[in-house]
């Protein structure tokens, strides 16, 4: 007699974990609720109890990625000196991006599904930017307008994103750079960012 498998105790979470694993194996384009159900050993209709469509499931995967990302940034080593704290935040950003390449690409390298207008995903996608703004504000003691602070935050974010991205490409490995340049690249970029941020507050 064929053994009937029991559904996971928490099917909602199991669907997210399984979707994440399937994306890692087959790519985001091939994700389907049917494959998630098959991997979990449940009926094809079971995931629909929690996720009306494949896009809703993908939106939840993204929401949790952003939530973890913001948590990692917030757990950085803190410093009273604002510039040192910003540098710590930059290192934490790079650590997450390099240690979690799949999640990083999901958040910033793929178009969001139509279901991505879910309030939970929108809220969590803003958390990491809020962490950045909160770390950046003390550098200026309230002297910058909100718009200027946001522009500076976007500058920092784009700099870290560009560095995190290029460090993971084959192109970086084929630039014929000296070992000294490669090993000092991260700190050099952070030095340049810090100099630009200080100059913008004068």
Question: Any overview of this molecule?
Answer:
With 202 residues, this protein is mainly alpha-helical. It contains nine helices and no strands. The protein is globular.
Could you name the key traits of this structure?
9 helices; 202 residues; 68% helix; mainly alpha; globular
Give me a quick take on this structure.
The chain is mainly alpha-helical and 202 residues long. It has helices at residues 11-26, 33-40, 54-74, 82-99, 101-108, 119-136, 146-167, 170-173, 179-200.
Note the topology.
Layout: H1 11-26, H2 33-40, H3 54-74, H4 82-99, H5 101-108, H6 119-136, H7 146-167, H8 170-173, H9 179-200
Main sheet characteristics: none
**Secondary structural class:** mainly alpha
- Average of per-residue pLDDT values: 90
Number of extended strands: 0
Beta-sheet strand percentage? under 5%
What's the helix count?
A: 9
Uncertain segments are none
* DSSP helix fraction: 55-70%
Shape type: globular
Radius of gyration (Å): 21 Å
User: Could you give the order of the helices and strands?
Assistant: HHHHHHHHH
End-to-end Cα distance, whole Å, is 77 Å
């Amino acid at each position: 007699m064929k053994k009937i498998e029991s559904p996971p105790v928490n099917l909602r979470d199991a669907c997210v974990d399984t979707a994440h694993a399937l994306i890692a194996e087959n790519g985001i384009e091939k994700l389907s609720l049917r494959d998630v159900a098959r991997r979990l050993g449940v009926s094809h209709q079971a995931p629909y109890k929690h996720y009306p469509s494949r896009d809703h499931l993908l939106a939840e995967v993204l929401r949790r990625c952003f939530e973890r990302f913001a948590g990692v940034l917030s757990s950085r080593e803190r410093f009273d000196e604002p510039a040192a704290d910003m540098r710590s935040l930059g290192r934490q950003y790079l650590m997450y991006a390099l240690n979690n390449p799949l999640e990083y690409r999901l958040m910033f390298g793929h178009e969001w599904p139509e279901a991505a207008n879910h309030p939970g995903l929108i809220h969590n996608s803003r958390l990491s930017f809020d962490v950045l703004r909160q770390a950046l504000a003390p550098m200026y003691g309230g002297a910058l307008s909100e718009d200027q602070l946001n522009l500076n935050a976007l500058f920092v974010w784009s700099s870290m994103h560009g560095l995190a991205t290029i460090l993971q490409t084959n192109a970086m490995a084929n630039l014929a750079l000296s070992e000294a340049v490669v090993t000092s690249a991260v700190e050099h970029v952070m030095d340049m960012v810090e100099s630009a941020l200080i100059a913008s507050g004068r």
